[in-house]
Amino acid sequence: MLDLSDSQKTHYEYKRDRDRKMHEMRRTLALWNKKKLQAYVYNKNKNFPSSDAGMAAILERFIYRDEFEIGTMSEELKMGFDIVLSISRNNKIYFQTTDLILEFITYYKEVIHSYDRQSAQTYYHKLMVAYEKSVRLVNRKLEIEQEIRIKY
User: Fold this and answer.
1) Domain assignments of the chain as residue spans, ordered by start
2) The pLDDT value given to residue 88
3) What pTM was estimated for this model as a whole?
4) Of 68, 92, 98, 113, which residue has the fewest beta carbons closer than 10 angstroms?
């Protein structure tokens, strides 16, 4: 379902509102483990419904805290990569979040390749395909919103 409540907001108002929500989510998500983050992304947390700002805060946390290293526990890496895949498939994300997905992939490229070699997985390919699909999804969503704004 499209949220047209902010269709009257200017670009700056939207950015300020998103930054405020991201700041709130950064503080909340800082203490969560990966299982809680996964439940949030799957929208199974009743106290905090998933949003674009929350998913962007998760990606920022992964990137800026160096949460993944070569040689860490494989289950932890797998869960983190699955969280990023789930974010990229989520209908609530926008372009800023897709940019963070690409930043995550490039930042952890060596870690992803190392994990793929050790466990015979293809997470690098999966993440790149998911990123491309997320960009197409966001483009399509913006086209639909544009058509609705023109009609109404």
Assistant:
1) 11-151
2) 93
3) 0.82
4) 113
